[in-house]
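step 4 of 6: structure.
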Amino acid sequence: EPEVTQTPSHQVTQMGQEVILRCVPISNHLYFYWYRQILGQKVEFLVSFYNNEISEKSEIFDDQFSVERPDGSNFTLKIRSTKLEDSAMYFCASSSVVVAGHMDNQPQHFGDGTRLSIL
Amino acid sequence: GNSVTQMEGPVTLSEEAFLTINCTYTATGYPSLFWYVQYPGEGLQLLLKATKADDKGSNKGFEATYRKETTSFHLEKGSVQVSDSAVYFCALKAARQLTFGSGTQLTVLP
């Protein structure tokens, strides 16, 4: 079964440094997402991406964050200048699109996550 | 805004016991509802879904029914196994984003 893959599985970075988290979504999916889960807290939506642009973003997704689809397979999340509170598990997800308009019933398929630790 | 409230854990059961994990939601419109499961060291896996009122999602012996009148989507399994030990997340999808509950840790003892 096709999977969403994320690399690296664990990233340790000094505060203030830039970090890029990488994801390879399922190949025929067109919607891509990033979520994060701070230890002991809920999984929170960060951003959704479609047709090479952001379609939705949460309040968490401020100017320090950016997303990119640099080629036909990768989807990246960049944090420009990391802070201690950015330490979390970051999940990438993807979903397909149903032309008939019932978009909401398409499940999102998640990767195993990248654990980001900011020192 | 949208929100999901899940039964607090942790939940510990003996093998073959009956499982219920409660989930209620608040949403505008008609969201789709999901249960995701996270096994130790792994990502979120879709367990089951329901897209409209009275739909029943089922998978691997787990079931949940979309109850619009009570805004609930409780997860049930008649006989749990040790391999069901994991964290279970209830979620709703409105527009393109998922809103998750806080997760319920389930431990099944042999």
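step 5 of 6: annotate
 - The mean pLDDT of chain A is 91.
 - The interface with chain B takes residues 4, 6, 31, 33, 35, 41-45, 48, 50, 55-56, 58, 91, 93, 102-105, 107-113 of chain A (CB under 8 Å).
step 6 of 6: archive
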